[in-house]
């Protein structure tokens, strides 16, 4: 997929929030300009963070670093923490890199360190862990080599004894691209990825893995547009668009919750903004919405219905906000190449494959507005299909509409990490040229969608059962 498209989260839906469907674009291919952004003082903005890395100097000195220069020169060992890029207010602590007199060891400290002098300011952490998601930063010392090294929370680096520093940050995952939590029930197995905000990374039924996870704008996840009048304001559950290279320099959203209880998987994340450059960030500076939470409760074998899963999106906002949300956006592998709508009231299944446009580079998608029902994407045989069912808000449910799109821009096949992908979104708010954006209340809101994986015939049968049992 061309960079101008792949670097835009859920590009068809979110650009549709900004322009009408007939003029919608994807990335730099947009055919019309979005409305001007709101006055800066009208809305909060995300906070610019600084990514701390651990590099190795001269083969023995583990040194904390930030920015592109040192991580390009020295071997990059791990991504450690997010801290503040600049001092914002009281309650924050200057975190410094120190160096000993012989220049052979670098250490980290918030004050003076005997035998060491100031080398440079690494960034600004928090003085306590009261802000959700923060972790106390740890420093390790190897008494044999006399080397200091900043440690990831819970890291066991051989030879190093960990001691806490009096400063907090958002802990990261070293050079790991995945840290999965697996849940299985009803013939379905899901794996969510801690490194990427806890979003659904894989979804497997009857031996078939459905999800495309090429970048942090895909997977199965929620993304909010806040406010709708500027494409820059985009809290994203998984992370930002710096996510396709070395995992040690990717930006995933910090976690708040990541656990299974029975048949339900619970995840919560503090979302990064999809495009950090819109607020002064870059490849070493993600931007975070520290007062927003996105996440899910995912219950497999819902009501003992086997292939039916209840997907409840959780959104926490600091104030009443006009906007829109994909809850969830569902990105599938491109071997799923047939598109369907299902109206549960009339029990009407309609193939719309020829009506779903290729979104490269236009970003155009197909919209469906059932009162009760949803969309389905299947493989060519229809033996493998995933459907999303919901009730329209006018009938007490969640959705304003569904959208479906195909982004076959790379021609690299149907692998889970391929550039080619297809998508369906359950959407509350505007973006289809018909539905208005809506007000989301301050505090926590929840939205229910039901995901079904089976053959096409059985997906429609399960959707009909959901309609008959009047779930919302």
Main beta sheet: strand number and arrangement?
9 strands, antiparallel
The side-by-side strand order for the widest beta sheet comes to 16-17-20-21-31-27-26-23-24
Uncertain regions: pLDDT < 50 for 5+ in a row? 1-41
Give the beta-strand count: 31
* Alpha-beta classification: mainly beta
CATH architectural designation of the largest domain: Distorted Sandwich
Give the percentage of residues in beta strands.
Answer: 35-45%
Overall shape = elongated
Oligomer: single chain
User: How many angstroms does the end-to-end distance come to?
Assistant: 36 Å
Please give the CATH class of the largest domain.
Answer: Mainly Beta
**What name does the CATH topology of the largest domain carry?**
Beta-galactosidase, Chain A, domain 5
Portion of residues in helices? under 10%
Number of helices: 4
- Mean pLDDT across the residues is 90
Number of spatially distinct domains: 2
Radius of gyration: 23 Å
Can you put this structure into words, describing what you see?
With 472 residues, the chain is mostly beta strands. 7% of the residues lie in helices and 44% in strands. The strands form six sheets. Strands 16-17-20-21-31-27-26-23-24 form a nine-stranded antiparallel β-sheet. Strands 1, 2, 3, 7, 8, 9 and 19 form a seven-stranded antiparallel β-sheet that branches. Strands 14, 22, 25, 28, 29 and 30 form a six-stranded antiparallel β-sheet that branches. The chain starts with a helix and ends with a helix. Mean pLDDT is 90; it is low at 1-41.
């Amino acid at each position: 997929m061309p960079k101008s498209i792949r670097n835009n989260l859920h590009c068809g839906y979110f650009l549709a929030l900004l322009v009408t469907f007939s003029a919608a674009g994807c990335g730099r291919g947009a055919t019309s300009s979005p409305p001007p952004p709101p006055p800066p003082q009208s809305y909060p903005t995300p906070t610019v963070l600084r990514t701390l890395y651990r590099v190795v100097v001269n083969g023995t000195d583990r040194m904390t670093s930030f920015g592109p220069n040192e991580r390009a020169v020295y071997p990059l060992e791990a991504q450690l923490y997010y801290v503040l890029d600049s001092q914002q207010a009281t309650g924050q602590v200057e975190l410094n890199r120190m160096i000993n007199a012989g220049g052979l060891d670098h250490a980290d400290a918030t004050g003076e360190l005997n035998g060491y002098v100031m080398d440079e300011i690494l960034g600004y952490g928090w003085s306590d862990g009261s802000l959700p998601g923060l972790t106390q930063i740890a420093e390790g010392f190897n008494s044999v080599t006399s080397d200091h090294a900043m440690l990831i929370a819970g890291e066991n680096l051989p030879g190093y004894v960990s001691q806490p520093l009096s400063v907090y940050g958002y802990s990261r995952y070293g050079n790991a691209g995945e840290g999965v939590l697996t849940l299985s029930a009803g013939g379905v197995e899901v794996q969510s990825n801690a490194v990427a905000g806890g979003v659904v990374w894989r979804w497997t039924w009857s031996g078939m893995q459905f999800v495309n996870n090429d970048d942090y704008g895909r997977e199965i996840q929620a993304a909010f547009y806040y406010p709708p009048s500027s494409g820059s304001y985009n809290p994203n559950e998984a992370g930002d668009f710096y996510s396709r290279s070395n995992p040690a320099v990717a930006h995933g959203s910090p976690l708040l919750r990541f656990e299974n209880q029975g048949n339900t998987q619970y995840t919560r994340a503090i979302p990064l903004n999809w495009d950090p450059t819109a607020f002064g960030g870059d490849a070493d500076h993600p931007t975070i919405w520290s007062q927003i939470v996105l996440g899910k409760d995912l219950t497999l074998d819902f009501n003992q219905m086997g292939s039916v899963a209840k997907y409840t999106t959780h959104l926490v906002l600091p104030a009443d906000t006009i906007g829109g949300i994909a809850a969830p956006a569902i990105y599938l592998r491109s071997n799923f190449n047939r598109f369907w709508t299902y109206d549960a009231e009339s029990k009407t299944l309609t193939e719309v494959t020829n009506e779903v446009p290729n979104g490269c580079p236009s970003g155009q998608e197909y919209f469906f507005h059932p009162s009760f029902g949803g969309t389905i994407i299947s493989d060519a045989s229809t033996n493998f299909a995933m459907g999303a069912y919901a009730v329209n808000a006018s009938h007490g449910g969640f959705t304003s509409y569904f959208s479906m799109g195909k982004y076959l821009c790379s021609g690299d096949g149907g692998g889970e990490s391929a550039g080619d992908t297809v998508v369906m979104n359950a959407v509350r708010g505007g973006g289809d040229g018909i539905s208005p954006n809506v007000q989301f209340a301050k505090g926590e809101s929840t939205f229910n969608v039901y995901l079904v994986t089976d053959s096409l015939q059985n997906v429609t049968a399960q959707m009909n059962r959901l309609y008959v049992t009047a779930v919302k």
